[in-house]
Amino acid sequence: MQKNCNLSFKSPIQSPRSCHLPISEEALQQEIAELRHKDSALDNETLQLIAEGYNVDELDKHILLLHEYNDLKDAGQLLLGRLAMLRGVTTKDLYKEFDLDVED
What we know:
Elements (H helix, E strand, L loop, with lengths): L24 H27 L4 H32 L3 H7 L7
């Protein structure tokens, strides 16, 4: 059986442009109302956190630090994986060797 490699590729995933279905004015108004409701709920939640003594800038800093921590942890995991592959051992073996907690 010979395959023709000159045929154009058709992805099984539809592009966003091909997914556009006509949306009624009523559906758009409903979506806008839902988004406004979510926005209001988030504003109320923010005000409640501030009333409880939370500082928005401090929370933003903590979120930024958590992202940085996760990025560094991912890089460490990648390095451990590569080192394990080079040594022909499991990453679990390396956790023991470097006195790391497997659950962390």
